[in-house]
Specification:
The complex is a heterodimer.
Chain A (H helix, E strand, L loop, with lengths): L8 E4 H11 L4 E4 L6 H13 L3 E4 L3 H13 L4 E5 L1 H17 L3 E9 L5 E5 L4 H6 L9 E2 L4 H18 L2 E7 H5 L1 E4 L62 H16 L2 H4 L2 E4 L6 E5 L1 H16 L4 E6 L1 E3 L3 H8 L4 E6 L5 H9 L5 E5 L8 H11 L1
Parallel strand pairs in A: 2-3, 2-4, 4-5, 5-8, 7-8, 11-12, 11-14, 14-15
Antiparallel strand pairs in A: 1-9, 5-6, 7-13, 10-12
Helix pairs in contact in A: 1-2, 1-6, 3-4, 10-13, 11-12
Chain B lengths: L5 H8 L16 H13 L3 E5 L3 H5 L12 E3 L5 H13 L7 E7 H6 L2 H9 L5 E6 L36 H6 L5 E5 L4 H13 L4 E6 L3 H4 L6 H10 L6 E4 L3 E5 L7 H6 L9 H24 L2 E3 L8
Parallel strand pairs in B: 1-2, 1-3, 3-4, 4-6, 5-6, 8-9
Antiparallel strand pairs in B: 5-7, 7-8
Helix pairs in contact in B: 2-8, 4-6
């Protein structure tokens, strides 16, 4: 690891998220207890007051998301953490966050579902919910790290993207990553980039809260800043922030919200490859399942099969272009995901019918094994 | 300490509706003990609605189900509305005799489900709603709730960032809804417990029973001390035993000479870090609540002794 990194710490993934969030400048946490994410809240409860930040345990998941948006609009860097049932409850307010353009980070430590499901067991079954859970058209950024060092850096990146693009960013872990302890070397302060939201340089009488003359991301002014008048609403609004039903203005604004993601793919996209250069059998996998996929790649190579892993770190927006390029060298691709088949639809949409797409899915709380993935790899080779 | 009356012992040990063995509660669980006692009163003609909480796990793995009655384990904030729906569904079929019980923890009642409890109370739906209160979210690893006493340790109210508010006064909140019956009970006082549950079973409309439910792992005490702590809570005025009719007439079990607060605090490691100031504030919170209830009782239903007989 780089010299800029500090001492090695042996930490569970949930604690890594909390530590990294504070390193990224997070100074507010609003949360509610839910397995398997509660350690993030507990660690923030201990960390934030010591650092001048603020922790509130809210009365429910809806309130937790509300408090995060409130803190964000007041100027704080805000985090909340939850799991499936709590994420379901947060979704209306998450949509409000997209609409009013409130930077914040939401962690979903995924567990088995639907409903109460398997609270103490892992799953990757909220990935489509992360994309489409809240109603209406909206942009989404969702990040799925696979290792604790990556979780640390991606938590910082999640805050940076949320600040830079003025929108909520979702960090998807699962119970395995949340509770697994492994070594992590947090970078020393000052050795990594921290991005803060762009503030307006307009005087109060010229300020428009959704002024697009500076680009697709309107400069920010903290709520209640003396002299500035900012009306925030979940209704469709124009550049003044006040509601409008003018079709032209509504269309323009919704298209701009989407463009914050589609127009910044260079910033947002992140894909990791493993033994992919000469691969002719691909594996698409993310998060903790990708760890098993890496072992499967090694075992396949030992048996003379040229397997390689395509691992989206940014899951949403979906890396269509990168996957399409990779698919050109493949005889087929295995989609290994810990659900009954969700991202496989995106993979199929991307590769069309050019190569076979093999599903390796699973539910039940016991992670997909390398042997299971290898079995699917052999179907192609 | 009085021995339970013979009829209480007979009821609580009767075979007709005993919960089975094999439940998954921790040793010394005040909630499991209370559930067993309540079921002895309810009999088999009842339906349980339980949200996400310890009791949803405690019910036990099939085929060793410990309740022996139909049970619906629902989402966290949905106890009261689901119970309301069950009652309405029964009513639509003329099945008015079946008792519908909502059985929820303090998090589900004081926090996430409060709006829903309020709405069901406001409609005066014919439900017996029971809150077993262990003063934190114990099932998810001891996080603070609205029922957590001021400055008590939980994983989200650590010593360096204590909870700054006193325990929420759920009794007054429910009383403000003018529901037919409210009672508070403790497993340390079985005669009182059984009498109030028997009464609540008979009354129509929204009934609310608040159980003091010691939790050894969450409140950090030895399993053998569950009943001792429950009894100390009553005798020190930490947990007043009362009944309120129609939100107005309050009868309070009088504790003229409170005893055992020091021991109550000392037995539980969640209070280990208490400074003199914390200790004073804790006692002040208890006294404030007690005197409010005491004044209310004097003006309405009066005071009783441990056996439920009127003192004044």
């Amino acid at each position: 690891m780089k010299e800029s990194n500090g001492e090695v710490k042996f930490l569970p993934g949930n604690i890594v998220v909390a530590e990294a969030a504070v390193a990224a400048g997070c100074n507010f946490f609003g949360g509610y207890p839910i397995t398997p994410s509660s350690e993030i809240a507990a660690h923030m409860a201990a960390l934030l007051p010591r650092r001048g930040g603020h922790f509130i345990q809210m009365e429910d998941e809806i309130a937790a998301m509300g408090s995060v948006i409130g803190a964000s609009l007041a100027g704080a860097k805000a985090l909340t953490a939850t799991s499936g049932p709590g994420f379901s409850l947060k979704l209306e307010n998450l949509g409000f966050g997209y609409m009013v353009e409130a930077p914040c980070v939401i962690v979903n430590v995924m567990r088995g579902g639907p409903s109460t499901g398997l609270p103490t067991h892992p799953a990757q079954a909220d990935v489509m919910q992360a994309r489409w859970g809240t109603h209406g058209d909206h942009p989404t950024i969702a990040i799925t790290p696979a290792f604790h060092q990556e979780t640390y850096m991606e938590t910082i990146r999640a805050f940076n993207l949320s600040e830079q693009l003025r929108m909520p960013v979702i960090l998807l872990l699962d119970e395995v990553l949340g509770h697994l302890s492994e070594g992590v070397r947090p970078p020393k302060p000052g050795t990594f980039e921290i991005i803060n939201r762009k503030m307006t340089d307009q005087p109060p009488d010229k300020y428009l809260p959704y002024d697009t003359s500076f680009g697709d991301v309107p400069p920010f002014v903290p709520y209640f800043e003396p002299g500035y008048h900012w009306h925030t609403t979940g209704l469709n609004h124009d550049e003044t922030g006040f509601p409008t039903t003018n079709p032209e203005l509504v269309t323009r604004d919704e298209e701009r919200l989407m463009r914050k993601v589609t127009g910044n793919r260079d910033l947002i996209d992140k894909v990791e490859y493993y033994m992919a250069d000469d691969a002719d059998v691909g594996i698409f996998s993310f998060g903790s399942t990708a760890r098993a996929a890496m072992v499967a790649v090694k075992h396949a190579r030992e048996q003379g099969i040229k397997a390689g892993l395509f691992r989206p770190v940014t899951l949403w927006p979906f890396p269509n272009k990168q996957l399409k390029d990779f698919a050109e060298q493949l005889k087929g691709i295995v989609v290994a995901e810990f659900n009954l088949g969700q991202m496989v639809y995106e993979v199929e949409r991307t590769v069309q019918s050019t190569i076979p797409v093999i599903r390796r899915t699973k539910v039940g709380g016991v992670p997909i094994t390398p042997a299971e993935i290898l079995e699917s790899v052999k179907e192609i080779s | 300490m009085n021995e339970p009356q013979a009829q209480t012992t007979e009821l609580l040990t009767a075979d007709h509706c005993k919960t089975s063995g094999g439940h998954l509660a921790c040793q010394g669980c005040g909630g499991a003990l209370s559930l067993r006692m309540a079921l002895q009163v309810f009999g088999k003609e009842c339906v349980f609605v339980i949200p996400a909480c310890c009791m949803a796990v405690i019910d036990g793995p099939f085929p060793v189900s410990s309740l022996g009655v139909p049970l619906m384990h629902i989402a966290f904030g949905a106890t009261a509305p689901t119970a309301s729906g069950i009652r309405a569904g029964f009513a639509a079929q003329g099945k008015d005799e079946i008792l519908v019980v909502g059985w929820a923890g303090d998090g589900a009642t004081f926090d996430i489900g409060l709006g829903a409890v309020s709405a069901a109370a406001d409609r005066n739906d014919d439900i017996l709603y029971v809150c077993y209160d262990n003063e934190a979210y114990m099932n998810t690893g001891v996080q603070q709730s609205g029922a957590t006493p001021r400055a008590a340790w939980t994983s989200t109210s650590p010593r360096q960032a204590p909870k700054y508010a006193a325990k929420k006064d759920i009794i007054s909140i429910m009383a403000a809804h003018r529901i037919p019956y409210i009672a508070s009970v403790s497993p340390s006082h079985p005669d009182d417990f059984v009498r109030k549950f028997q009464l609540a079973k008979k009354i129509k409309g929204f009934r609310f029973i608040h159980i003091f439910s010691p939790c050894p792992p969450g409140q950090r005490f030895e399993e053998r001390n569950t009943i001792k702590i429950a009894r100390k809570a009553v005798e020190s005025r930490v947990f007043p035993l009362l009944e309120i009719y129609n939100g107005k007439k309050l009868t309070l079990q009088d504790i003229p000479d409170p005893q055992g607060l020091e021991e109550y605090i000392k037995l539980q490691r969640r209070f280990d870090h208490f400074s003199t100031e914390d200790r004073k504030q804790f006692e002040s919170d208890i006294n404030t609540h007690w005197h409010e209830l005491h004044d209310w009782a004097i003006q309405s239903g009066g005071l009783t002794g441990e056996n439920g007989k009127r003192n004044s």
